[in-house]
C-alpha cells in the first residue's frame, strides 16, 4: 500500500507538489495529508464531484478536474 512505499510523488494540477515517505508527507500537513485524511475517513468514494465534498477550494478544484465526466 501507499503507507509502505519507499517514496511517494504527490502530483497536483500536473506538477510535482511534494515527495517523501508516507510519514514525512503526513507530518508536513500539506495536500497529501489532506487527501489521505479524507480517504481514511471514507470520504473519497464515487462520485468525486467538488460540490459534493466538504474540502478546501484547492482540493475541490483538483478533484473536480480529475473526475471523468459522462459525455
Give your account of this protein's structure.
The protein has 71 residues and is an alpha+beta fold. It is built from three helices and two strands. The protein has helices at 22-28, 31-40, 57-66, and strands spanning 8-12, 15-20. The radius of gyration is 13 Å and the shape is globular. The chain starts with 7 loop residues before the first strand and ends in a 5-residue tail after the last helix.
Query: How would the global form be characterised?
Result: globular
Number of separate helices: 3
Give the low-pLDDT segments.
45-53
| Overall mean confidence score, pLDDT | 76
Structural class per helix/strand content? Answer: alpha+beta
Biggest sheet layout:
2 strands, antiparallel
Distance between the termini: 33 Å
What is the CA-based Rg, rounded?
Answer: 13 Å
Helix content: 25-40%
Instruction: Work out the strand percent.
Output: 15-25%
Strand elements, count: 2
How are helices and strands ordered from N to C? EEHHH
Q: What is the spatial order of strands in the main beta sheet?
A: 1-2
Question: What's a concise summary of this model?
Answer:
With 71 residues, the protein is of the alpha+beta class. The protein has helices at residues 22-28, 31-40, 57-66, and strands spanning 8-12, 15-20. It is globular, with a radius of gyration of 13 Å.
Note the topology.
Elements: E1 8-12, E2 15-20, H1 22-28, H2 31-40, H3 57-66
Helix pairs in contact: 1-2
Amino acid at each position: 500500500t501507499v503507507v509502505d512505499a519507499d517514496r511517494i510523488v504527490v502530483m497536483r494540477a500536473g506538477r510535482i507538489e511534494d515527495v517523501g515517505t508516507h510519514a514525512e508527507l503526513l507530518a508536513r500537513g500539506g495536500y497529501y495529508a489532506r487527501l489521505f485524511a479524507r480517504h481514511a475517513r471514507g470520504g473519497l468514494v464515487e462520485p468525486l464531484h467538488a460540490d459534493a465534498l466538504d474540502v478546501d477550494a484547492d482540493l475541490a478544484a483538483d478533484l473536480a478536474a480529475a473526475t471523468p465526466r459522462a459525455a
